[in-house]
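Exercise 3.2. Students should predict the tertiary structure of the chain below and write it as structure tokens, then compare their answer with the key that follows.

Predict this chain's 3D structure.
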Amino acid sequence: MGNLTDIALRAWIKAGQPVAKADGGGLTFTMSAHQSRQRGGTWVLRYRFGGKPRELTLGRYPDISLAVARQLAAEMRVKITQGADPARDKQRGKIERAAAQDFRVLASDYMDKAFPRLAGTTVKQRRQHIEGVILPKLGSLPAREVTGADVVALIESVGAKSVNVAELVFTALSEIFKHGVARRVVTANPCAGISVSAICGKPEPRRKRLMLTEAELRAIFPALPSIGRENALAVKVLLVTCARVGELTRAEWQHVDFQAGEWFIPDENSKTGKGFTVPLPPCAVGWFRELEELACGSRFVMPARQQRRIASHGQETHFEQRALNAILHKLCDRLGDTCRRFTPHDLRSTARSHLAALGVPVLIAERCLNHTLGGLVAVYDQHDYMTERRAALDLWACFLLACEAGREWVAPGNNVVPLRGHAA
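Answer key:
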């Protein structure tokens, strides 16, 4: 007993080297490499209970002095002699404190641990459901007191507005409780055995994606000027590049290479979370140049135009993609029976369908849309197919320009090669 001194402890701290020294009676001073940089160490009491070695952390030095550490160690040895296991009691107390924590704390821990492994779009959607829907209802309840009845009541309230959203909310809630079970914060998942369809019924069938026909495309192009030049150019770019609307509205000029005829979509803008380079046909380069003039020096390809949106962000920001949905609804109203109602995402399905009709191989068409390819293809095939994608989009652009100009489309190979057009 009493092998350590305050002078020795300060010397070890000053030396900054990892060390483990016993004071006697199981009391040990330890300092790891990390702790040495923090100018501190840890007091550990080592003992045997039921024939097995145990360790109990007493606290940090210098917060707990040598004298206090000896006093604590003596008190713990008395408990051990009386048949207690201080390390187990401490662990049990930690579990009980965790069990008493609010559901909000468990949800926050889940987001901290799980979100880094999820795709950006999934994180954004799930955070919105957790913070905007789940926490206002369950956040203040102790995690272990959330019952199946609470889950059913929440899903019923959400499902009254949207069954599809109710399913997403239920998935987020179930994942939080799975995390809680793994952390021993809760003993069971109250979502087990609960079915959203049993509570809310079957969701409405998802709207099928449209493939705009050649006749509909020929009706759309003459009507595009009615929605404004910038919006019309956005529709053309989305069609010819097969890009997602969010990728275009968040695009910046630093990622558009006019000379190479390429547009790079960075990781943070890509749905897959992985950057992607889009080859631009000559007409698309021309449309981007027009957008650059309309941007008036903004770093965004499509800057926000409404002062209310700019003011809400407190700085320059990009065009709101939902605004394009509203604009296309107005366009469809003007087109009447000549065209079915379509959304920006329908432009992707239109492009994909026409690429197939133009004879573009499935793999190349899928890569044009930056779809994630599953199975062994995703594992082994790392080729970007840039040359093939450029040829496919050039062919698609020729078809679109023929529709815009009102010319008859003649597929290459019939002794007539369609001329590669330019932006109108």
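Discussion points: The chain has three domains: 6-98, 101-200, 214-405. The beta strands are 19-24, 27-31, 41-49, 52-61, 256-257, 262-265, 276-279.
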